[in-house]
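Protocol step 4 of 6: structure prediction from sequence.
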Amino acid sequence: MPKFYELTPQERLAVLVDAGQLDQADADAYATQAALPEAVAEHLIENQIGQFSLPLGVLRDLPVNDALYQVPMVTEEPSVIAAANNAPASRG
């Protein structure tokens, strides 16, 4: 199975919906807000699932008080979400 960052934005949204971490209405809204061409947005941020004026990505499974959270992040710097996803505390 591919890693989350290797999936397309549509596949990432489907994973989050299937896991019950995002409802379908929000996934549909994220998928339709495109300010940038898909190819540009995909290279500006890791785990891109949608767009605002900048790409929208997600930090997966951030552990806080024995619960895992999905944290949406909007940034133009590709290494921010990648670094957060690889931080020792976010490995679950």
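Step 5 (inspection) to follow. The chain has a mean pLDDT of 86.
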